[in-house]
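Predict the structure of Tryptophan-rich sensory protein.
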Amino acid sequence: MKSQWLWLVVFVVAVSGIGAVIGMNFPPGPWFETLQKPWFQPPNAVFAPVWTVLYVMIGVAGWRIFCLEDEPGLRVLWGVQMGLNFLWSPVFFGLQTAGWALVVIAGLWLVLVAFIRLAWREERVSAWLFMPYLAWVSFATALNGAIWSLNRGA
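Done. Here is the predicted structure for Tryptophan-rich sensory protein.
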């Protein structure tokens, strides 16, 4: 039982830590500042606290999924969403391509929906932990889409 709690810490620290490292290596920067933003663009200071809370919830859900005996589908979906999540910042801020980032985040949204649907049957707590994440990614997808649309000719 003690090792399970250690794994919880490992999951939360790993997810949050990797997210923080990616965020530090791919910050908004001058390119982003020159883009036209939609009216619903929140201040940059909102993103770090929101992602910190979400990464803790994602880590807890991952830990719960990996503690289950036979849930390879949920494990695969959890891993795929982490990969897409971590890919978005390098594509958007690193490559400075809002269009390709929109493809990445749309894929992330689809995987989150699939994860929640499967987890709803198999591990409902993890499904609930992903609900705020899906809400935020839905908002972020709309934001990414609006930025892409407003800046296509730029």
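The chain is about 80% helix and 0% strand.
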